[in-house]
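the three lines:
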Amino acid sequence: MPDLLANLNPEQLAAVTLPNEPALILAGAGSGKTRVLITRIAWLIQQGYATPTTILAVTFTNKAAKEMMARLTAMMPIDTRGMWIGTFHGLCNRMLRAHFRDAGLPQTFQILDTADQLSAIKRLMKGLNIDDEKYPAKNLQYFINNAKEQGLRPKDVDATDSFNMKFVELYAAYEQQCQREGVVDFPELLLRCYELLAHNPPLRAHYQARFRNILVDEFQDTNKLQYAWLKMLAGEHNAIFAVGDDDQSIYAFRGANVGNMHDFEREYHVRNMIKLEQNYRSHGHILDTANFLIAKNSRRLGKNLRTDAGHGEPVRVYEAATDTQEAAWIVEEIKAMIHAGAARGEIAILYRSNAQSRTIEHTLVNAGIAYRVYGGLRFFERQEVKHALAYLRLIDNPNDDTAFARVVNFPTRGIGARSIEQLADAARLYNCSMAAAVPYVTGKAGSSIGAFAQLIAKMRAETQQMSLPETVEYVIRTSGLAAHYENEREGQDRLENLQEVVNAAAAFVQEEGYGLDTPARSIPLRPGATNAPEIGLATDDPSVDVLDPASPADPAQNPDTMTPLAGFLSHASLEAGDNQAQAGQDAVQLMTVHAAKGLEFMAVFITGLEEGLFPHENSAQESDGLEEERRLAYVAITRAKERLYLSFAQSRMLHGQTRYNIRSRFFDELPEESLKWLTPKVEAGARWGGRSDNAGWGRDWFARPGQERGERAAYTDPDAGKPLPAFANNQRAADTGFKVGQPVFHTKFGEGTVIALEGSGADARAQVRFKRHGEKWLALAVAKLQAVE
DNA sequence: GGCCTATGCATTTTT
DNA sequence: TGCATAGGCC
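prediction for all of em together
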């Protein structure tokens, strides 16, 4: 039996071995959060406090869910078949598939992703002749999703003004449309699942009796609905083991409610709040910087990270004249690091908004440095892939008008906008889907649309017995998609992507454990399965023990509640795939601060630390906006393991205009002792207070002798080339007059000893351990430090 | 139907 | 500035 508890620190140990009661684990950045979570699961099972079937572990991203599953099985051989580990949406989908009838859904319901949802809304509004200048589709989408995330159906929304009343009306119409088409959007998955449990006491009792152990990752990111869903499953007696970090809550804009942490603590009378403050990632100066900054936030649960790693390097700060010059400096630093043997993949460049990446990318390209940018189009979001999926969806669920509208005339088959409008009118008139309305349209429109309907019918018939990969391949060919892209000049990539869909289908079949010949559209019996899927649950027969994992009456026990095709389509919607180009390549990593959450790098650049950008100007209008920006900066800082750079530029090209920014207020909230200004620090007052005319300011105010005006010297850090990990004390004492071990005296801090030196000339700094004031970095040009004999 | 131009818009994003 | 989208034109 593996010793799961070996090498845990006392707080981690305490968290892992808590009694089965509500618990809130405040897990700081880099504190071993995932480790605690999975060790907790393994320990519960090992000790006999839980079985795999009693465990439900929920995360936000598929990546996190996969990592959890992988590390768990690596830690301990566990039969994960009965375990529910997944994202909120994935688990809700699973439950809705198992109980589709009780949930009021067709068995083949399809999931709309955000783009599908928007086009469904646009179609709805067009049909109702709604002026989309006055009621923009995007706003309605936001309104609907927001309402759902508050758990509100149209009848529950309080609308006082005519504008909102219209939105409520449209929300209701949208719901009807979705219901008729058999589609659900993302928030609907959660709300529908919540209502399923709320309105069905036997079902609720079943799952409550089953999931005795509920574990939640990134709890600070939960929204109201997700929290309500968790409470529903927990009932009166189940333990929720919530792990999160209020200081890393950066998703308020999409509904995350940090308040859930306080609420959870209060509502469940949490006796077990454990703080994981030991950080295993960053060196001391980096942590001090993070701690100092986040301390400026109010309403924290309170936490201070510590490390055994030593101070390490100071945080380097750089002021550039322009964004271009900032990028040039970054590239020089990176070159030096690479030269010293650093791996490109261990270097990250972070920015607040995507627009900032362009300048940096250009500079990297010119320097010939491999990089990769996070974000952008994901595999299942590509046009050609979505087209292929639309045909597959129509085969599975002909009422899916979003899919129908998408491909009825793609590849083009002479069905124009007018014909489609006629069909949509007919569908509205007969209150049916477009596919069902085909017989009602006549004339030329009727015949071309009729041919399309026949094509779909033929596909449905001919794929009846085909496996999933065969079906996909058949559809790509028969739909004419393949031929279309073969004829297109630049269709080669798209063709390859279509082939990738076939491959993805084959991989899916394999991973899900279906036989390769399993028909895509029947619910198969897998080897070892004893029952056909039963839908509607054991509630029909109260004598059946629904908790018996072997019981055929427990459909949730049987993963085979979806056909391979439905599973694949769900997979495509819920897991849109990688958006990281050239993954695996050793390349410098570019991403937004949001995208960096959860990652770590040897060296991190946080760029564009300017008022208006970071903190972002729009945050000023949001309640608690500045605090969220500060948390964002905190997340960014805590990504760095050994080296951290903070930079800002006096001027920056944004939206085609040059903006002049002042440095971020966050600099005034950082510990001066942990910073090393590579460019001279200019007090805000010195520049702004004394400025009477602004001719040329910001370009050449700091030009040094011998430099051209407006040209910036390469302020490349002379230490950048030190190997990573690098921070052996710099013994150079050449021009400082001090050396390591030297006893010194400071007028304010008293007696101390020099323990490190770095930089030279005006940048020279000494780290001093004072007898009564601890360790500090002092700029020798400024500090009045005297050598003591 | 496809191509071209005019126009508007630009914080962060997973499912 | 640069992209996505919409609308007009051939």
